[in-house]
Write a structure and sequence with these properties.
By secondary structure, this protein is mainly β. Helix content is 0%, strand content 62%.
Amino acid sequence: QVQLVESGGGSVQAGGSLRLSCTASGNTVSINDMGWYRQAPGKQRELVAAISSGGSTNYGDSVKGRFTISRDNAKNTVYLQMNDLKPEDTAVYYCNADILLRTSYYTTRASNYWGQGTQVTVSS
C-alpha cells in the first residue's frame, strides 16, 4: 500500500559527496516525520537525520555540519545531502517515515514505514 523507494547510494572516495533521495508512493493522506538511518556491519541502526513536516531538523552528532536533510512535501520526497564523506560513513542507509494512509473512503491508519536500504561506501 505504501512504498518508500530510495536512490542515490554508491561508492565515493573520502571527502566526496552523495545525495540520497526517498519517495513515498501509495495512498498517503499525509506524511509527518521523515528521516534517514544507517546501519554498518556489526553495529546497531542509528539515526542520521530527521525532519518534521514543518521543516524542523535533527542530526546525529557524527554528521552535524556535513549532512543536510530536506524534503519536498509536494513530491512526498526526503533528501539527504552528504558532504565531506568519511570511511566511517560507510553503511546501508534506510529511509523512514510516519505516514497517514487512507485505508478506505472513511478510514485512515497511521504507520511507520522503512525503505529497502541503499548502500553507501566511502573509501579512504
